[in-house]
Design goal:
alpha/beta, 294 residues, six-stranded parallel beta sheet, globular
């Protein structure tokens, strides 16, 4: 049976490290990291995710700045808020909660976030530097950073290994493949137009699944002993649950855990780590800014 990587436990360890560093910053400079979250409209999933971030900030001593705008707020109003946060020296990270309402151009808004405060790591300049050899972005995107952190803290070496990333989204698949490349893995991306994906995945020492397809990757697709990081969070009908559904990953956990060497569960694997990486990015941004200006 595979070793199950407990994302919650790893996240808690990292959070206590962050809390220690926040305390040190406060003692030495009298300043703490500040994270601003801009939310437009009242989508339930966005509200609950933002609530989690606020709670986590409070627990670690990070100052939270909450910008709640109505659903009908104009693109210009959202950009004005971003500019005000860019100019606020107590804010070290800015997160605009996606998706934004249809009438707002997401790209336009995200590009307005100051590069030094782009804690989500999605600014084209941050992604561009991630793609270039010998260049380092100011921030790494949170979910791909979480995947690498889970591998390294579980003792899985990446250098020289064959890694397959399933999915090529701007948020996970693409940056995850670039990060694996930076860690000296040999990387293949499997996507919706790939023929015979199972034969490619079967050769991988490391699999990062981020396709958004429930239980698409079967146990027979996994190389014995491989490390499997499952980013998928898919709701499937389950009448036995009070909610009427349960969450599953992109990997068939029951089958794959009999073959893999390491595997993350869904929920409880990558999820808890993603918010933690956002907080770590905020701390890193604050340290850079506070130490430069002291």
């Amino acid at each position: 049976m595979a070793t199950v990587i407990d994302g919650k436990a790893v996240a808690n360890t990292i959070r206590s490290e962050i809390a220690d560093e926040v305390r040190l910053l406060s003692q030495k400079y009298g300043k703490v990291p500040g994270l601003a979250v801009v939310i437009v409209g009242n989508r339930k999933d966005s509200q609950s995710y933002v609530g989690m971030k606020r709670k986590a900030c409070a627990e670690l001593g990070i100052k939270s700045f909450d910008i709640d705008l109505p659903e009908q707020a104009s693109e210009a109003e959202v950009i004005k808020q971003v500019h005000e946060l860019n100019a606020n020296p107590d804010v070290h990270g800015i997160l605009v909660q996606l998706p934004l309402p249809k009438h707002i151009n997401e790209d336009k808004v995200l590009t307005e976030i100051s590069l030094e405060k782009d804690v989500d790591g999605f600014h084209p300049l941050n992604i561009g530097k991630l793609a270039m050899k010998g260049r380092d972005p100011l921030f790494l995107p949170c979910t791909p950073k979480a995947c690498i952190e889970l591998l390294s803290r579980s003792g899985v070496s990446i250098k020289g290994k064959k890694a397959v990333v399933v999915g090529r989204s701007n948020i996970v698949g693409l940056p995850a493949s670039l990060l694996l490349l930076k860690e000296d893995a040999t990387v293949t991306i499997v996507h919706s137009h790939t023929s015979q994906p199972e034969s490619i995945i079967r050769e991988a020492d490391i699999v990062i699944a981020a396709a958004g397809q429930p239980m698409m990757i079967k146990g027979s697709w996994i190389k014995p002993g491989a490390a499997v990081i499952d980013v998928g969070t898919n709701a499937v009908d389950d009448p036995t649950k009070k909610s009427g559904y349960r969450l599953v990953g992109d990997v068939d956990f029951e089958e794959a855990s009999k073959v893999a060497g390491y595997i993350t569960p869904v929920p409880g694997g990558v999820g808890p780590m993603t918010v933690t990486m956002l907080l770590k990015n905020t701390l890193e941004g604050a340290k850079r800014c506070i130490e430069q200006n002291s």
